[in-house]
Amino acid sequence: xxxxxxxxxxxxxxxxxxxxxxxxxxxxxxxxxxxxxxxxxxxxxxxxxxxxxxxxxxxxxxxxxxxxxxxxxxxxxxxxxxxxxxxxxxxxxxxxxxxxxxxxxxxxxxxxxxxxxxxxxxxxxxxxxxxxxxxxxxxxxxxxxxxxxxxxxxxxxxxxxxxxxxxxxxxxxxxxxxxxxxxxxxxxxxxxxxxxxxxxxxxxxxxxxxxxxxxxxxxxxxxxxxxxxxxxxxxxxxxxxxxxxxxxxxxxxxxxxxxxxxxxxxxxxxxxx
Amino acid sequence: xxxxxxxxxxxxxxxxxxxxxxxxxxxxxxxxxxxxxxxxxxxxxxxxxxxxxxxxxxxxxxxxxxxxxxxxxxxxxxxxxxxxxxxxxxxxxxxxxxxxxxxxxxxxxxxxxxxxxxxxxxxxxxxxxxxxxxxxxxxxxxxxxxxxxxxxxxxxxxxxxxxxxxxxxxxxxxxxxxxxxxxxxxxxxxxxxxxxxxxxxxxxxxxxxxxxxxxxxxxxxxxxxxxxxxxxxxxxxxxxxxxxxxxxxxxxxxxxxxxxxxxxxxxxxxxxxxxxxxxxxxxxxxxxxxxxxxxxxxxxxxxxxxxxxxxxxxxxxxxxxxxxxxxxxxxxxxxxxxxxxxxxxxxxxxxxxxxxxxxxxxxxxxxxxxxxxxxxxxxxxxxxxxxxxxxxxxxxxxxxxxxxxxxxxxxxxxxxxxxxxxxxxxxxxxxxxxxxxxxxxxxxxxxxxxxxxxxxxxxxxxxxxxxxxxxxxxxxxxxxxxxxxxxxxxxxxxxxxxxxxxxxxxxxxxxxxxxxxxxxxxxxxxxxxxxxxxxxxxxxxxxxxxxxxxxxxxxxxxxxxxxxxxxxxxxxxxxxxxxxxxxxxx
Lengths: 273, 586
What we know:
The structure holds two protein chains of two kinds. Chain A is an all-alpha fold. Chain A has helices spanning 12-15, 19-32, 84-97, 112-121, 151-169, 180-191, 202-218, 230-235; one strand at 49-51. The model of chain A is unreliable at 1-42 (pLDDT under 50). Chain B has helices spanning 17-28, 44-47, 56-61, 120-128, 146-160, 197-208, 255-258, 260-263, 315-324, 419-428, 472-491, 560-578; strands spanning 3-4, 8-13, 33-36, 74-77, 85-86, 168-169, 172-173, 214-215, 225-226, 232-233, 269-273, 276-282, 289-295, 301-311, 348-355, 371-374, 393-398, 432-439, 448-456, 462-467, 496-500, 543-545. In chain B, the strands form five sheets. In chain B, strands 1, 2, 3, 11, 12, 13, 14 and 22 form an eight-stranded mixed β-sheet that branches. Chain B has a single domain, classed as FAD/NAD(P)-binding domain (3-Layer(bba) Sandwich), CATH 3.50.50.60. The interface between A and B is large, with 107 and 123 residues.
């Protein structure tokens, strides 16, 4: 049913302009076009994809997403980008940002660290869509991200610099080893931009960390986070469903169906052990 | 040296909504049309199929359908005392790339501007006097009237199958529609969309305050529709992945779902993709465009001659191409002289979150243009005497679908993370909605576009520089709209509300709207406009410039309906007059 329109034929009148229109076109050509002289054939546009008289479609070209599941990483550690210190830092930080509690699992249990690892190892981590040419300036608050760091570079520097600052404070050797209350205090200070870190803006890093943690909690499970759709279950979001038409008019009723992801339901893909 | 190809009759630069409309109209007139698109071919079944289209991370947060800033961005600053810096990643607005342009990921909110919007300067002068318009406010009349555009609005609405309810049929006000709209010749092609709970609650509250709420006109289909070209669209499924996403369901009007199945099969039309136009070349007189230079996928420079050149890219590319090609006098904000880059404007928005404890709202059900609105405070629909501003905006609830990474409001006083935040999210998500305001931005002398002196794109060309901030007029107007929205939100009898007023300078980071306007404005005087009332360049008559760049200021509605109506209006003039006798049309 969905492809009916692809077969819709042009109406006759659309492809056969009336005589006066053709006359008008000929008049335009007489005035200007025929000066063009010796013409190269159209195939001279060799460096372009030339599309004529068709709606292009090729079997097997659908642009499916790149999944990023645990276990796919090449390194022995199971992580594609993060080193051990970074895994420890992020495991502690995401567990404070979205904690496990009586409402259910938090960001750590949802796989947010795996999610962030896969993101930093990929296009996002390299800022490959971002404009990263200099010169560089700090800029106004309203001018947005102006750091020289890519997201991957930002995480690498931030964990190193924050762990160093924590050690200098003397309560623990690193952020991950602090008590939960002290971790919260550090996160709050980063959010407020208080720590003076050597090469980066604390506030900017915190903003990125919080955003990526929430992404790891609520994005589709194919990206490594939101394991068993715990983020979606917490709030009642039904996931990657594409037809709610039967429920539009059912006001003030709880949506009855469990969430689904792009690969289906959690119980279809449960990993043992 | 660039390879020179044989000439074509008409050349379309950029293949989104306006490119498709112009190519369809001019091929119908019998001339050959070549479209050059910097991006790739894309279509529903291969690029946004329902099996993977509902992916918030990939499409919104990782910008899969949008322009790559690495390839082209612009520099931004709030005023001339600041140094403009590059927008390194997209935020406030989301220009498109690839076939269909931003028209693939638009919401489908399809409006007509008010009759008074087209004569904003003379209308406000007449009603409120000279003192109401500060010297720095550079608003102008459009040079085209609502009545002239009406048949062309109608054409686009029937092409798309807009779902809605007329409020004014040939002067007779219609129950259930927008009573403030200009007269329309006939009803919308499709009935309004079915409504979810929050817009329904808003409409009840608005009626209780004496307003006349109406369904938002929508390019999402309320039922199956076959358009005048014979192309068929399918009923919307309210999946909630519409704005910022491609529709996998053939339910949102785009170039792909309304025009391309017919246009692409025509023998007098050719599309070349991955060809980015870098310059428009003039003859020695400087009054005639002879060709464009583009860079193809192989990285080679190609010169493509054409008799008629139509700039149909996004406003930011159109204006930049004019500046880079030295066509039209660049605008100088210190003298107010010059035209290209003048009167850049945007949109000002605010919201009021509405929190219930006893109502389940299911905010994930939605469509791009699915809401109930009031228009009492738009344009000059209300008396501005003594208010200290002109212009206005619509107010209402538009349920586009609460994808959770983007939309998870919490009541006032909630921390931004941690256990208390998590509890607030869990309690609020299904029971929260938002009343939004969508306001006009008048043009001002200092808000403009020019070429950046420092930063370059991948081809080494200067980036465009945007100098923009909201002025007192916008802040006063937005505050006024936000107060009205707050009254409406309270009338919905929620447990609590949270007011998100628009304060301070324009910020490039949070998404606001992709409603950039101006820079190549239309008008009746070459000294104050870049194109005439048919969107024809005053300086180079075989060059036409389309899109919201033509807006002399930005009214309080989404732009696409008017962008398309102007394209049809101009195409009609090219077909009926220009092709017989090429030359200035005004």
